[in-house]
Design brief:
Blueprint (H helix, E strand, L loop, with lengths): L2 H43 L33 H15 L3
C-alpha cells in the first residue's frame, strides 16, 4: 500500500470510529434518561406519595412551545393578487 492510500483510509477509519463512539454515547444517555423517567413514574405511583400534576414538564425535558395566534384572522387580497395566486396554484397543479 502506498503512502497516498494509507492516509485517507486512516482518516476514514478514525472518523467512523468517532461517529460510532458518539452514537454509542448518545444511545447510552437516552437509555439512562428513560430508566430515570421510569423510576420517577414508579416512585410517583408508590403509596403515600403526593400526586403531582401530570401536565408538569420536568426540567431538562425539551418541549416544543405552543404557537401563539397573532395577526389578522383573514387577509384581504386585491383582484390582481387573487389572479396571481390562482395562476401559481394552477402551475403547481401541473406537476402532480
Amino acid at each position: 500500500m502506498s503512502e497516498h492510500e494509507t492516509s485517507p483510509r486512516t482518516t476514514g477509519v478514525t472518523v467512523l470510529t468517532l461517529v460510532a463512539v458518539a452514537c454509542a454515547a448518545g444511545l447510552a444517555d437516552a437509555l439512562r434518561r428513560r430508566r430515570e423517567r421510569e423510576r420517577e413514574r414508579a416512585r410517583r405511583r408508590a403509596p403515600g406519595h403526593l400526586e403531582v400534576s401530570e401536565t408538569h414538564t420536568p426540567h431538562g425535558v425539551p418541549t416544543v412551545p405552543r404557537q401563539r395566534r397573532t395577526g389578522p384572522g383573514a387577509v384581504r387580497l386585491t383582484d390582481a393578487e387573487r389572479d396571481a395566486f390562482a395562476g401559481l396554484v394552477r402551475r403547481f397543479g401541473e406537476y402532480d
